[in-house]
Design goal:
Shape: globular
Helix content: 25-40%
Structural class: alpha/beta
Strand order of the largest sheet: 1-5-6-10-12-11
Radius of gyration: 21 Å
Number of helices: 14
Length: 394
């Protein structure tokens, strides 16, 4: 169910209902899952009729009017993002107000065009006197994102950031998080970086809240455009040819090279296996070798796997996210695998710290900075999640 495999789940529920016909909870979940399977089949039928037709082609942003009573941030006629607009938008969001749909569409159309021109493996060099801040999962925790900027400074040409996937889902301010991150990407395209996480995918968004949140705050059409944009997010980033950053981790098989990552066709929903899947889904383990993933997809990889990959590709270490850590970060595999997680008190219940990493061009030695959760308005995590998730499926 967590992977959005509704058909398989439906068969399991069918078996449970036959074995326990008086179990009201099982029957209710069977009926709900059956509804979802039918809905997805209908959506696929519609999608196949409009295969490859982008939402952008059906938008007429120019004709969208901004009502006179809207007093929030607006883009100029050319739709150009400015720092003034970004500050106004973050303040507007902080007050739980909604950005006008015209502005949201303007951001999405522009960022799709920008991301589509990037390679699957982004390669940057930071100078000896420069540093970059690397953040892990933010998961719709908008007020904690604002706190990162308060503690570490707003993004700028002299204060670059890399956000390592899982911007949305679970937290109920995912729209605010992603529009803020996309806005900064447009403002600073060459020093603000975004990588795809396993939650920048349709299956996860349908289960864990982002689809429901976009539909509640805007429209189903806007969610479709978000989905298109997510498919263009790069999958990995190398820094000075020595540090490789990805959301999940390393690969189910040895021999994968940086050139293999460069060649990945990422403009799609991720497959169930292979390098693209692994970059989004895999996790490190303490023991050598590989094992079946506890998540049910990709694998777990040991210190020997990391060592071989780094040696083959002449890298020093990897930075990944994807897992909540009580201290906000964790160093494993003899210092060659670092996890960073930037959603403190994850889902309002884990009590973990958040963290971000500073990397300086002079030595590429990671400096860890921890922070605690800040208060947010009384909207619970998973407020927009799939009905089965709200029934306590996971």
């Amino acid at each position: 169910m967590a992977l959005g495999k509704f058909k398989a789940a439906l068969k399991d529920y069918e078996t449970v209902v036959k074995v326990r016909p008086n179990d009201k909870d099982a029957k209710l979940k069977y009926q709900e899952c059956s509804k979802i399977v039918k809905q997805k089949a209908f959506e696929r039928a519609i999608a196949s009729d409009e295969l490859k037709r982008s939402v952008v082609d059906s938008l007429d942003i120019e004709s969208m009017t901004i009502e006179e009573d809207y007093s929030g941030p607006k883009l100029d006629e050319g739709g150009k993002i400015t720092m003034k607009f970004m500050k106004e938008m973050m303040s507007w969001f902080k007050g739980q107000k909604k950005l006008h749909r015209k502005c949201a569409y303007q951001i999405l159309v522009q960022v799709k065009e920008l991301l589509s021109k990037l390679p699957s493996l982004v390669e940057i060099t930071i100078k000896e006197t420069e540093k970059i801040t690397i953040c892990g999962d933010t998961h719709g925790q908008f007020y904690d994102l604002l706190n990162i900027f308060e503690l570490n400074g707003l993004p700028s040409e002299t204060n670059p950031y890399l956000f390592n996937g899982d911007f949305v889902d679970r937290g109920s301010f995912s729209v605010e998080v992603i529009l803020t991150l996309f806005g900064f990407k447009l403002l600073f395209p060459d020093c603000f970086y975004l990588l795809r996480g396993n939650h920048e995918t349709d299956n996860m968004n349908q289960m864990y809240g982002f689809e429901g949140e976009v539909k509640a705050k805007y429209t189903a059409q806007m969610f479709e455009l978000f989905s298109e944009v997510f498919q263009w997010l790069p999958l990995a980033q190398s820094i000075n040819g020595k540090v490789l950053v990805m959301h999940g981790g390393l690969f189910s098989e040895d021999g994968v090279t940086l050139d293999d990552i460069r060649k990945i066709n990422r403009n799609r929903q991720p497959p169930d296996s292979g390098p693209m899947c692994d970059l989004l889904w895999s996790d490190p383990q303490a023991l050598d070798g590989r094992s079946v993933s506890k998540r049910g997809v990709s694998c777990q990889f040991g210190p020997d796997v990391t060592k071989r990959f780094l040696e083959q590709n002449q890298l020093d270490y990897i930075i990944r996210s994807h897992e909540m850590k009580s201290e906000g970060y964790e160093v494993t595999h003899n210092g060659q695998c670092i996890t960073v997680f930037s959603a403190p008190n994850y889902c309002d219940q884990m009590g973990n710290k958040g963290a971000y990493i500073h990397l300086r061009g002079s030595d590429l030695k990671p400096e860890f900075h921890q922070f605690a959760a800040v208060p947010h308005p009384n909207v619970k995590p998973m407020a927009y999640a799939n009905s089965l998730m709200q029934m306590g499926m996971m």
